[in-house]
Amino acid sequence: DSGVTQTPKHLITATGQRVTLRCSPRSGDLSVYWYQQSLDQGLQFLIQYYNGEERAKGNILERFSAQQFPDLHSELNLSSLELGDSALYFCASSVEAGRTEAFFGQGTRLTVV
Amino acid sequence: DAKTTQPTSMDCAEGRAANLPCNHSTISGNEYVYWYRQIHSQGPQYIIHGLKNNETNEMASLIITEDRKSSTLILPHATLRDTAVYYCIVRVLTNTGNQFYFGTGTSLTVIP
User: Fold this and answer.
1) Candidate from A56, A90, A107 with C-beta closest to B96
2) Chain A residues within an 8 Å CB radius of B42
3) Which residue in B7, B23, B33, B57 has its CB near the most CB atoms, within 10 A?
4) Is residue A62 a contact partner of residue A47, using CB atoms and an 8 Å limit?
5) Tens digit of pLDDT for each residue in A82-111?
């Protein structure tokens, strides 16, 4: 158990819908990362937050957004969902945004039908 | 975006050392090499990281060449539970923060 909690574990929704994925980082960790893993693209970095502020952006679509709240939990919002958004979404956390290891949650499996 | 090159797959006999290579020829001086593994769609698990010197922990050893253009992860006594995809990652430092770029990884199969 990494200490990073993601909910829900599974999510099935229809195209065009909007969903919210939630991540609770390990106690004391200030930095949160979101990753997408689809079958054909491997693990893709989406976005990073540090202590409530966006720190880095990767391959995140404009239909996706994220935020980190004062209690340090984070949410990833996916809207206007398409079939291609079906993937595993992982959250990771680390103590700081610097050169430390990150701990990953078990992921949310999103299926868009 | 990934800046590392790894073999697609490898096999290792149970109980033997597994040596997983990684090339990162464009690594810059302030970038670290990290290794993670992912067991069948579970969340990736941190293994080890290093900058210049060789590193060892309870899971593995990391050997980095002197020119830092390549490294090798060593699992000293591989078990069946070590079957996983192993990712070699170079930690990118930017003005706004740090990001992990995962490559395609090496699928290691430990054979009984």
Assistant:
1) A56
2) 106-107
3) B33
4) no
5) 999 999 999 999 887 665 688 999 999 999
